[in-house]
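Bit of a strange request maybe. I'm writing a small parser for structure token strings and I need a real example to test against, not something I typed by hand. Could someone generate the tokens for this chain?
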Amino acid sequence: MNISKNSSKYPTNNHEQILCFVEDIEIEKDPEQEIIEPFDPTKIKIDARQITIDLVLNRIRYKEIELSPDFQRDSNIWNHKAKSRLIESMLIRIPLPAFYIDATDEDKWKVIDGQQRLMTIKDFVLGRDDSSDPDQKDKDIQKDKDIFKLSNLEFLTQLNGKSYDEIPRNYQRRIGETQITMYLIEKGTPEKLKFNIFKRINTGGLPLSPQEIRHAINQGTSTKLLKKLAKTEEFKKATANSVRDERMAARETVLRFLAFKITPFSKYGATDDTPEGATDLDTFLNNAMKAMNKMSQIDLDELEHNFLKAMSAAIDIFDNEAFRKRSDRNARRMPFNKALFESWAVNLSSLNYEQIEILKAKKDILMDEFIKLNGDRSFIDSISEGTGSIGRVKYRFSKIKELINKVLYNK
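Reply from user aminoacidic:
Good idea to test on real output. This should exercise your parser:
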């Protein structure tokens, strides 16, 4: 992984402004977000339950726990050694960490923390294909190459190479009778509190990213649209394939565009004008996903159309230099910048095709004006640090809008 510090070409605040580049994406240095609005702790409803693996697997059989590989994150993020060691831990009676569940729908639990562990247990005991699924009954149940066989065990080495059906019955029983602790966030807990709870409990070896949390609690048309748009060739080309989606980074990038199309940047932070209010970027993005889940197909199609229009315009105008800082014509290509992505893409999507053609014809002038804008310390701050603050969101969007109008109308 290539990590380097920001060059001195750009102005900084009195304190040192630190930017890290991970692969080809600029990492924003944002302060830790605090709970700004007070809440009533009595409204938090969490029930701690001791439950056996057998009962959990029974819920999985009847699809009463969501365990789709598309849920939260890639279900194969654990390697086979890690999965085998988890099973071994159960066999030698090492307690498993607690699981956190969104149980606001008692008949359809959503796993907030612990999905990898449950997927591993399910794959080992039930197999990767659930024979209780009517769509699977006519298929071959698990070809040999798909059967989960233990490997790299540390203590029970005699079980290496064995599947669930091949281990002794006493070990099978030990798995089924293993008790785990589940914290169930129950119906009645306000949405804002639930999202904050998820962030607070989301700790451990491989915590969920903010977008994975949003994905977990906003299943529906929004998650499908984000996945679809993140895979489009237009998005990949406009971002020069810089934004990968292993941890839903690409989907969050797409969401930032969609959120500001749903709620204009001028209303960002205006709690009276957004569903449930949003004074920080996390809440703003979460609200956007909830809003998309309630939209008509016509409105969703319009969002998709605007997104693809913006991506195509960015490709034609900037080629592979889109959404990146630029200090001069001969400067090396800088990493992809999410704040520039949302501010450029949203502004481009608001143009008609005639205006886009004018910008394409004047793209050299547009780039020169953008290079000048990169000399504005306030603008650089607005796309580098604290990018979710109300003032910086409005500043960068308005400056890009002014730049575009200047080039369009020779102002």
